[in-house]
Structures are given as structure tokens and as C-alpha cells.
Specification:
The chain has about 160 residues and is an alpha+beta fold. The protein folds into 2 domains: about 70 residues, no CATH class; about 90 residues, Beta Barrel (OB fold (Dihydrolipoamide Acetyltransferase, E2P)), CATH 2.40.50. Helices cover about 40% and strands about 25% of the residues. The chain contains 2 helices and 5 strands. Helix 1 runs antiparallel to helix 2. The radius of gyration is 36 Å and the shape is rod-shaped. About 10% of the residues are buried. Keywords: Signal.
Length: about 160
């Protein structure tokens, strides 16, 4: 309809009317595009909000899963490892290896059999590469008969 009306104005040689008609066509199409852009923007914002909510729920679920398995009590032997200047590793009775963090200095003896209560830190990376990291909350000595004397000074920063 618009095109036929504009064509008749051109045939009548009325340039001002043609300009006005064309301006109206562009204006109305621009308004339609702006409306579509607003709707699209609103949809994108809703979609982004939904994605954010989903990712937050996923993160909360991951954290909850980690919290369920994070605290643990394990028994095993503290062992001195020579790598990188030396560090204390912990080998559980089931053979799993751990890098304990926060064992009190008086318990830093190679061969000491302990019960450790702590939080497993599966996403923590260390230079020791000796099993998973466990942040020690408490220690109980089970057997010190095979433990070596603490003749070697261990740097607390290496723990």
C-alpha cells in the first residue's frame, strides 16, 4: 500500500509529499525495529538471568557435594619425602596418599602412625604432587614405636 501511494505521488510530481511519505515509511520501520530490539534485548536479559541462576544453583550444588565429603578421619603413617627439599606425606592404611597441611610441629616425625581429622581439598594443587591435600584439624597419635627422631628441622612454610 505504501509503495503504491508513493508511486502515485511521484507520478504527480510532488517531491515534498514524496519526501514526507518516505520519511514516514523509514520512521515507522525504525520504530518497529526499535521495538523488536527492545523485545530481543529483554529476552536476552531474561535468558542471561536464567543462565546465571542455573550456574549459581550448579555452583551451590557442587559446593554442597564437596561439603558432604570434605571432612574425614583417616589413619595412616606420616612419611618424609625427599622431593623439593623434603616434605611430610601421609599414607593412609588403605594405601591412598595425602599431603597434610597444618600438622603440629611435635608430630612431624617420619614413621609416626596417626589418626588425622581434616578437610579434603581436592582442587588444591601443590608442588609435592603426593596425593590429595588434606587440611588437618586434629591429630591423634596411634603408634610412635617406629617413628624416627625429629633430628631434621622442617621448614613450617613447606607444610
Amino acid at each position: 500500500m505504501r509503495n503504491s501511494h508513493i508511486s502515485s505521488l511521484i507520478k504527480q510530481k510532488r517531491p515534498t509529499a514524496v519526501l514526507i511519505a518516505l520519511s514516514l515509511c523509514f520512521f515507522t520501520s525504525a520504530c518497529t525495529e526499535q521495538s523488536n530490539m527492545k523485545e530481543s534485548s529483554a529476552t536476552n536479559q531474561e535468558s542471561a538471568a536464567e543462565k546465571k541462576e542455573i550456574s549459581e544453583l550448579s555452583l551451590k550444588n557442587d559446593l554442597n557435594e564437596n561439603q558432604k565429603t570434605a571432612n574425614m578421619t583417616i589413619q595412616g603413617t606420616l612419611v618424609f619425602q625427599e622431593m623439593e627439599g623434603g616434605f611430610m606425606g601421609f599414607i593412609a592404611n588403605d594405601g591412598k596418599k595425602y599431603t597434610p597441611m597444618g600438622i603440629p610441629k611435635e608430630h612431624m616425625r617420619d614413621g609416626l602412625v596417626l589418626e588425622i581429622n581434616g578437610e579434603l581439598k581436592p582442587n588444591m594443587i601443590t608442588i609435592t604432587q603426593f596425593g590429595e591435600v588434606i587440611k588437618v584439624n586434629s591429630v591423634r597419635v596411634i603408634d610412635d614405636s617406629k617413628a624416627k627422631s625429629a633430628d631434621k628441622e622442617i621448614n613450617p612454610q613447606d607444610l
